[in-house]
Specification:
- By secondary structure, the protein is mainly α.
- It has eleven helices and two strands.
- The radius of gyration is 34 Å and the shape is elongated.
């Protein structure tokens, strides 16, 4: 028990510390620890990216593209070794990439673009979409043209950019998740009850709950759904809602088993109980019945 409490307290402390760091705490120990961990993580990330870039076949590229690509990989290795990475010090409520931070430090892709001489692209992205992922900049024709000129694809550029928290469009809304848990639990509970102890009242309740659960999977805003959904959760919700309805209908329309009184009596076993007198205690007689 004591070990469990210590582990829970330690986990809670780590969570509070990480939240404090995300929210821009002034604690210098937390901040320095966060920066140190980020440097280790980003260096490992760029190690992996450099291996991937070096392993790609470049026979389909022109000589100029191959030369530019080779130069960029050298610059990326220098960027990794320098260890001067940007900090999202303008938007500290979430972990996101940042093209250029308040100190003027650029991310890896912005660094490569700047070093090639295209400061204009970095300046424009900083002004318009400083927190954007590279994949979200695929409609930027100047950026895509630059990537093509140096022999990089949008996918490779996206790999150069480190990952942080899940992207906003990948996060399932909390309200949707809470309602999904609630209705799935209610459907499972009523279905189990109706199968174990069928009852008309609970049967009707199961049909009602199952219908509302199906509405949850269909995306009814009245049940708290949000625009960002999850297909797997919706599929599971449809299964539990349908099961609750089927179990409820079965409980309502079931035929109660007929009781054969004679057969019931035939299965009753009776045996005498004899109380042997002890001293002044009277003699007693009884029957024990087993059904």
């Amino acid at each position: 028990m004591h070990r469990t409490i210590l582990v829970l307290v330690g986990a809670a402390g780590a969570l509070v510390a990480s939240r404090a760091t995300e929210k821009g705490t002034s604690n210098p120990v937390s901040q320095s620890a966060h920066v140190a961990l980020e440097q280790v993580r980003l260096r490992a990330h760029f190690d992996s990216v450099l291996l991937e870039l070096g392993a790609r076949e470049v026979g389909d590229l022109t000589a100029n593209q191959q030369a530019a690509r080779s130069e960029l990989t050298k610059w990326l290795a220098e960027y990794r070794d320098a260890g001067r990475f940007p900090l999202n010090d303008r938007y500290t409520d979430s972990l996101t990439p940042i093209f250029r931070d308040a100190r003027g430090v650029t991310c890896a892709m912005a660094y490569l673009i700047e070093r090639s001489g295209r400061w204009d692209i970095v300046d424009r992205v900083e002004r318009s979409k400083n927190l954007a992922y590279i994949g979200e900049l695929a409609s930027d024709h100047e950026l895509v043209a630059w990537l093509d000129s140096v022999g990089l694809s949008v996918e490779e550029a996206s790999r150069v950019q480190p990952t942080y928290a899940p992207r906003p469009d990948e996060i399932v809304d909390k309200a949707y998740a809470k309602w999904a848990i609630f209705w799935n639990s209610a459907s499972i509970a009523t279905a189990t009850w109706n199968l174990a102890r069928p009852d008309d009242l609970v049967g009707f309740l199961g049909v009602f709950v199952g219908a509302l659960t199906l509405l949850q999977s269909a995306g009814s805003d009245q049940l708290g759904n949000a625009p960002r959904r999850d297909k797997t959760i919706d599929a599971f919700t449809r299964v539990t809602g349908g099961s609750a309805i089927v179990a409820g209908l079965w409980a309502i329309n079931r035929k109660p088993p007929k009781i054969d009184k004679n057969s019931r009596l035939a299965r009753v076993e009776m045996s005498p109980i004899l109380g042997v007198p002890f001293g002044s205690q009277p003699f007693s007689v009884g029957l024990a019945a087993r059904f």
